[in-house]
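Hi all, long-time lurker, first post. I run a small reading group and we've been trying to get comfortable going from sequence to structure in the token notation. Rather than ask abstract questions, I figured I'd post a concrete chain and ask someone more experienced to write out its structure so we can walk through it together at our next meeting. Sequence below, copied exactly:
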Amino acid sequence: MLLGAVLVLLLLGGAGPASAHAALDSTDPGDGTVLQRAPRHVTLTFSESVGLRDDSFRVLDPGGHRVRTGEAGHADGRSDTARVGLPAELGEGTYTVAWRVVSADSHPISGAFTFSVGQPSTTTAAVDTGLSEDPLTATLNKVARYLSYLAAALLIGIAAFVVLCRPPDASALRRPLVAGWWTLLGATLALLVLRAPYEAGTGPADALDAGALADTLTTRPGVLLLARLVLLAPVALFLVRLGRADRHRERRPSTAAVGAVLALALASTWGAAEHASAGIQVPLAVTSFVLHLLATAIWLGGLVALLVTLRAAPDAATVARFSRIALVSVTVLVATGVYQSWRGLGSWQALTGTTYGRLLLAKVALVTVLLAAAAVSRRWTAALATARTPVRQPERERVPQPVPAGGPPPPEPEPAEPAPPTPDDPSTAADDLRRGLRRSVLAEAVVAAVVLVVTTVLTGTLPGRAADEAARAVPAGGVLPASVTTIPFDIGGSGRGTVQITLDPGRTGDNAVQAVVFGPDGALAAVPELRLSFTLPDKDVGPIEARLVDRGGYWSANTLALPLPGTWTMRTTVRVSEIDQVSAERRIRIER
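-- Answer (accepted) --
Happy to help. Here is the structure in token form:
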């Protein structure tokens, strides 16, 4: 079951770009803008607080040489910004800014943009920002995260099963408890040493860098992982005490209290590092996440404990107790899950229009199957609780028979052969009920393992609310993200070029337009003509022509009046020769 879950995890969350909670709202200078004077700083604004690295910024001049910058920091003390100082004098031309930060929920994000001083360069520096994740490092990190969730479920769930369900013999549960402890230890160590290369987007070999590991221990994700490692020591002592108490049949209330405190502390190391730690209603979200994780652990870990108990020492009273606890866990799961879904989505459209929403739908479908399997298990449990095993009757006292004088003793009566069990035999029916219960509980455990896989991928995916906020946010410089648009176009056998169009401020009323044409090689391209028009189909407005003027390297129009908000269709026509031209369209959102 564990191997299958890891394979599903690799399929769902394999190599690819990181999908973190933080989203870039704006840049100052804006992407593609042309400034008359060189800026003193480069400032990025995000949808949530971000952490900075030593190499968070790389600024390249038009020739591709790295510009000496100041130390990266937060602008005006705001944790949702990143700023770096530039030299006092920047020459004329196009500069490229590559950036990389760590979002509040511990996932790294990166990107690049350009701005020009004076006028755009005829050539720009080619910068490879690389993958936001190294494929191997990302895969190892995902597997370690999944194993840490699974191990926590085993530890917390099985320990809660022993304390709350009171099985008559819990000795068979020691091995999965020990396995869960060692798995959590190994997974946490792996996450800690992989943290530095995961943030940097480099290979696993960089995990051997002692300096990078020391830097990791000063960050919030590193501190939380270290706290989890420290907590495993008292957890081990608690497990030893729990085993001794079970052998001596001691049921002390203090054992449950200590276990509850340790479980809350362990769950909090996840709650303070995942999506709940950023965004809206953080205290309530962290509390909800911790309760959600504990309920999942008690249910999933309890299912594993129940399977082991049913095989080793089946007991109807233990099964009935777990059934009641599972019902409470499901109630908590549903309540906290609804809240977390609302907080992460933000709108009904995000349910089908974002990766986060589609993963959430898949999780809801799997949880529905899981609840159906749980309902079957409850029916088996109820039937087992009402089944009656026949009470064995004591043997009748044998009356001595008289022995005739001088004769041999009478022969001993032959013992009666036990009757074979019949389908109506209560003991046979109870065995059938236990086998049916084992099968349904096993089905629950398998589906729950897959749900845990989808949850692991979900925690690394950009929530719909964050994506929507980033799309609608107004940057500090006044340019909406939707107003910077790149339109590809075909140049026949020569390849594909692109037109980068910037609207300032990207709102209703007067706008300034700047357009830059790039050739197939990514360098600036000179074209005979560039036309741009805007149409609002919903209101039957347009086309409105933008009267672009060739400024020698880029095209611009000082005034473009867009009278209404809505989703406009922007049509670009590029004349690539005296007789050939190509057109392409993009839909952009213009706010009021």
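A couple of things your group might point at:
The chain is about 45% helix and 20% strand.
The first helix runs from residue 2 to 12.
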